[in-house]
């Protein structure tokens, strides 16, 4: 091994170390930004080392370099533009789209190398053939499934579970095609047409497996698809003999798998039950979670301001309504105003609030909310019982007491015990239900007051009303 090869491997090792350290730093909102930066530096170093290695090998033609330069320019430009312009409310669909690109790219690597080996007399070695089959199969599923998830988040595809007729039989047939095709490819008796059949079946399976999943479960499925992309990238690394891809893909696959399990546990639902689909929607009329004739008590900004300003403890519960209204700065302004009056203010964060893991944490951090004020669910529930006012902003399913009642879509799901607070103030645009398709009996609780308005407008009105009060 030459000194040059050793240097490249050392750069790869340093990049892999950056990935591990960056992933560790992302465990906490306080260090997550630094972790992202460390990981980005590692990736930049790995890309630079790979380009230098390609130059030294002399195997890349001028046309290849032109295509490579165009790809880097387009990819970097698209990434920079989307990072700057896409609002936080659209981040789940952007994550899904990026995940689809990763899975599709990994599958293309496998397809390219299979055709290259197929042109040789001996064909692909058994180990490479296994990696190619896994790469193409998993990458194609991640690609099509992530595109469906993106469409559901964006509203291009209905968020409700879509159950195609005879989907079980169709899925079994697609799996049979994939298994038989993989066998033919591994024994060396299958050609390009067999690989094409495997790719087509995997793409169809990704679509049919994601369509039945409702909006309430979609963040879990996106996390699982992200893990699939990581595995596909690792397989692509085995195919082309690149250790950096193997390490990076392995880390993404492992972390995505762990996150999937944690999110499923937070909803008290098995991953298999989530993949089976069939519940969770934001598109159709909901099922009443409490008495249908119970009274809803609305309030005004002035009355709500008095309730908040003269409380000893206030717990703010953010949800997707806060993100949709881009009201994170307004809620921080209100919290700081209340704190200046001697009110103890905290934020109760449910693990699956919003549409992606950490959605609320990122929003609040963007508005400079102190990290120590963000309470995870267990800590928040301990404090809610001694809280004077719980201010719920657009959160529905994660505060729904119907989760404690057997026999409905969210039965058993851990929730924020908002109804244990002394008083509840809910900011919503309407009485609409959440993604699980259930009405929330919290809204008809005698100690709950509803403030019907867009979150941004409501919080601005509440802040203005609190400022007029005498201490």
TrEMBL record:
GO cellular component labels: plasma membrane
Catalytic activity, EC: 7.1.1.1
Topological relation to the membrane, as annotated: Multi-pass membrane protein
Domain NADP transhydrogenase beta-like: 9-464
Keyword Secreted: no
Organism listed in the record: Murinocardiopsis flavida
InterPro entries, alphabetized: DHS-like_NAD/FAD-binding_dom (IPR029035), NADH_DH_b (IPR012136), PNTB-like (IPR034300)
Signal peptide: none
A GO term, aspect molecular function: NADP binding
Subcellular location: Cell inner membrane
Protein name, UniProt field: NAD(P) transhydrogenase subunit beta
Protein family according to the UniProt entry: Belongs to the PNT beta subunit family.
Domain of life: Bacteria
Residue intervals passing through the bilayer: 6-25, 37-56, 62-82, 94-112, 124-148, 169-187, 193-213, 220-240
Lineage: Bacteria, Bacillati, Actinomycetota, Actinomycetes, Streptosporangiales
Transmembrane found in the keyword field: yes
UniProt function note: The transhydrogenation between NADH and NADP is coupled to respiration and ATP hydrolysis and functions as a proton pump across the membrane.
Catalysed reactions, semicolon-separated: NAD(+) + NADPH + H(+)(in) = NADH + NADP(+) + H(+)(out)
UniProtKB keywords: Cell inner membrane, Cell membrane, Membrane, NAD, NADP, Translocase, Transmembrane, Transmembrane helix
Coiled coil: none
Pfam families: PNTB (PF02233)
């Amino acid at each position: 091994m030459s000194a040059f090869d050793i240097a490249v491997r050392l750069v790869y090792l340093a990049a892999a170390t950056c990935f591990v350290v960056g992933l560790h730093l992302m465990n906490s909102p306080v260090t997550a930004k630094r972790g992202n930066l460390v990981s980005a530096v590692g990736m930049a170093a790995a890309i630079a080392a790979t380009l230098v290695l390609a130059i030294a090998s002399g195997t890349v033609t001028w046309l290849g370099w032109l295509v490579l330069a165009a790809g880097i320019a387009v990819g970097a430009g698209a990434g920079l533009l989307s990072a700057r312009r896409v609002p936080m409310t659209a981040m789940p669909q952007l994550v899904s789209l990026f995940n689809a690109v990763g899975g599709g790219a990994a599958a293309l690597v496998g397809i390219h190398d299979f055709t290259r080996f197929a042109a040789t007399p001996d064909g692909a070695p058994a180990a490479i053939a296994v990696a190619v089959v896994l790469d193409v199969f998993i990458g194609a599923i991640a690609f099509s499934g992530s595109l469906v998830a993106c469409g559901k988040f964006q509203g291009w595809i209905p968020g409700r579970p879509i159950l195609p007729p005879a989907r079980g039989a169709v899925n079994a047939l697609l799996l049979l095609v994939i298994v038989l095709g993989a066998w033919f490819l591994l024994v060396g008796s299958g050609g390009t047409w067999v690989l094409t059949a495997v790719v087509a079946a995997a793409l169809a399976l990704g679509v049919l497996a994601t369509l039945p999943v409702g909006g309430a479960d979609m963040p879990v499925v996106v996390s699982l698809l992200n893990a699939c992309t990581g595995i596909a990238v690792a397989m692509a690394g085995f195919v082309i003999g690149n250790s950096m891809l193997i390490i990076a893909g392995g880390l993404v696959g492992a972390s995505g798998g762990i996150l999937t399990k944690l999110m499923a546990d937070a909803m008290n639902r098995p991953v298999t039950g989530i993949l089976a689909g069939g519940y969770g929607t934001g598109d159709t009329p909901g099922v009443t979670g409490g008495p249908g004739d119970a009274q809803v008590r609305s309030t005004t900004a002035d009355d709500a301001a008095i309730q908040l300003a003269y409380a000893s403890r206030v717990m703010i519960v953010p949800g997707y309504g806060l993100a949709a209204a881009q009201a994170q700065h307004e809620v921080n302004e209100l919290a700081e105003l209340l704190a200046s009056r001697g009110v103890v203010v905290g934020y109760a964060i449910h693990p699956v609030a919003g549409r992606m893991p950490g959605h609320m944490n990122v929003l609040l951090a963007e508005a400079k909310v102190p990290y120590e004020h963000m309470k995870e669910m267990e800590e928040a529930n301990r404090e809610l019982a001694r809280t004077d006012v719980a201010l719920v902003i657009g959160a529905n399913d994660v505060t729904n007491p119907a989760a404690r009642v057997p026999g409905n879509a969210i039965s058993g799901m851990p929730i924020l015990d908002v109804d244990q607070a002394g008083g509840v103030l809910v900011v919503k645009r309407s009485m609409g239900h959440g993604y699980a398709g259930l009405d929330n009996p919290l809204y008809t609780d005698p100690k709950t007051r509803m403030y019907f308005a867009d979150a941004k407008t409501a919080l601005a009105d509440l802040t203005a009303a609190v400022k007029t009060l005498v201490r």
